Amino acid sequence: MDRKHSLARLLARRLAPHDLVAAAGEVLLEALERLPRAERMTFLHEMITASIGPLLRNLGREERAQLMNSLLPLVAREFPLADLDLLTAFSAPISSEDALGT
């Protein structure tokens, strides 16, 4: 596994951002195709949960807000908003650290 991780890190350092996005998208699609449908949601949840912190680590509050504002139309288009249970999803109080994105 170490060789695979080393190769992935090498590609991440060498590829232009656009090429890295394209490669990551292709790899993700292949991984999802291999997974049984019943396991896809768990995989996506684990991947996003593990990645969101590192992806946003160096972004300030204003940058995070801009990113979220640009992503909301995509989320609204791709998810069945009428079926979401926002009261359950946000039932736990948000700490000040979470609210500030720290």
Strand content bin: under 5%
Q: Summarize model confidence as the mean pLDDT.
A: 88
Number of strands: 0
Could you say which structural class the secondary elements and strand pairing correspond to? mainly alpha
| Low-confidence region ranges | none
Observed structural traits:
single chain; 102 residues; mainly alpha; 0% strand; globular
Task: Please provide a written account of the structure.
The protein is mostly helical and 102 residues long. The protein is built from 6 helices and no strands. It has helices at 2-14, 17-34, 37-56, 61-78, 86-89, 96-100. The longest helix is centred in the middle third of the chain and has 20 residues, at 37-56. The radius of gyration is 17 Å and the shape is globular.
Short description:
The protein has 102 residues and is mainly alpha-helical. Helix content is 76%, strand content 0%.
Q: What's the topology here?
A:
Elements: H1 2-14, H2 17-34, H3 37-56, H4 61-78, H5 86-89, H6 96-100
